[in-house]
Design brief:
Beta-clip, mainly beta, single chain, globular, 2 domains, 9 strands, five-stranded mixed beta barrel
Length: about 120
């Protein structure tokens, strides 16, 4: 059962229609602008909480707390997660930027909870 705890959300402009990307990982694409995350080598900034339906609308990004996120592959409890090319959560490889720690297991397409936290995965992770 996915749960949430909002401690800090940030509002940025949506780079485009992001209405299909609620609970997907976002990246900074321009000044004060969020777009869908495309990988662990990008500037990942959190998880989209709402459904902005056109460019320039407010995109609410979870920066601190517990958020729901859509899995792009199999994830285990405690895995460090990053974005795949579709902004889904996948296990971070060594050297990739991660956006959280999985609080529950999931498979592709499932919504799970994760603790929002930022860092770089160790080569042995």
């Amino acid at each position: 059962m996915a749960l949430e705890l909002c401690i800090w959300d940030m509002s940025l402009d949506a780079a485009r229609d992001l209405s299909d990307y609620q609970f997907h990982i976002m990246q900074l694409s321009a000044e004060y602008t969020a777009d869908k995350g495309t990988g662990g080598d990008e500037v990942l900034i959190g998880v989209l909480q709402n459904k902005p339906d056109e460019e320039g609308k407010a995109a609410e990004i979870r920066e601190v707390g517990i958020s729901k996120v859509v899995c792009g592959d199999t994830i285990s409890v405690g895995d460090l997660i990053t974005a795949d090319a579709n902004s889904h959560a996948v296990v971070a490889a060594g050297g990739e930027r991660y956006v959280g720690i999985a609080l529950e297991a999931g498979v592709e397409g499932r919504v799970i909870s994760h603790k929002v936290e930022f860092g770089y995965a160790n080569e042995t992770s």
